Amino acid sequence: MRRPIIAGNWKMNKTIEGTIAFFQELKKLIPQGNDREVIVAPPFTSLYAASNHLNDSNIRLAAQDIFWEKKGAFTGEVSPGMLKNAGCQYAIIGHSERRQYFHENNETVNQKIKSALEEGLIAILCVGESLEERESKLTFSVVESQVAEGLKEISPDKMQGVVIAYEPIWAIGTGKTASTDQAEEVHLHIRKLLAGLFGKNVSESVRILYGGSVKSDNINDLMAKPNIDGALVGGASLDVQSFAKIINFNPI
Ligand code: PGA
53-104 pLDDT, tens per residue? Predict the structure, then answer.
């Protein structure tokens, strides 16, 4: 049984005060002993304060990005060890906005995944095709190379520290969710690919999240699919009521 994950990616939103106010409310809105793994990725500047505030809670923190070096002359970058020290247990890696605006590619993503795993952070590897690629029927091949190259030289036993998020770029922030069948088709494809790369046990245990305009009114249908193990939520994770509704989903 794969434990469902609901992860919020706040992107470049919220101050420290806004972060604490959000978590004060969120703690009241989700039951203790929930079977869901709840993760939030605030901006770097809020992480330490959030982690102090969440001491008594099961809500976990993710970084939105990491750099692969441990320390040194890399102005503006933050290492996996620093993020762990600030209270993170997870790191989102290779989000499409990082790939699009900051020129990340499968090779840099692979370096980041390796360094996250080395530090004991759980890596959330983001993959997904553009609209043009989908229309050219390249979805499977794009996702295949993102998964295979992103996870290059990672041993099967290290894969327990990896979560995959399938986020079709055309569905991110657009209000256009992939249909549940479209999402499930790609998730199943990724699972088969993982079986080929790492063996059946790994492929059965890796959580594959869907991301792209997830809302409280589509989460139940998504979570009813056998290969969708959770969601990576952008816009709808900024509002505490809507994020809590997504966390408290109820698959049909
Ligand atoms: P969205 O973003 O939910 O606002 O579409 C998802 C993401 O970018 O992870």
Answer: 999 999 999 999 999 999 999 999 999 999 999 999 999 999 999 999 999 9
User: What's the CA-to-centroid distance between 231 and ligand 1, angstroms?
Assistant: 10
Kindly name the residue from 37, 53, 95, 129 that is annotated as catalytic. 95
**Domain presence at residue 252:** no
Tokens at residue 56, please? 């008594």
To the question of pTM greater than 0.85 for the whole model, the response is: yes
Residues 6+ apart with CB under 8 A from 76: none
Instruction: Kindly report the protein residue whose alpha carbon is nearest to atom 7 of ligand 1.
Output: 234
Answer whether 197's CB lies under 8 Å from 151's CB: yes
- Classify residue 106: in a domain, yes or no: yes
d(CA 198, CA 22): 39
> Domain limits at 61?
5-247
CATH code, domain carrying 73: 3.20.20.70
Q: How far is the CA of 171 from the centre of ligand 1 (A)?
A: 8
Q: Is 69 a catalytic residue?
A: no
220-242: per-residue pLDDT in tens? 999 999 999 999 999 999 999 99
Residue 41 included in any domain: yes
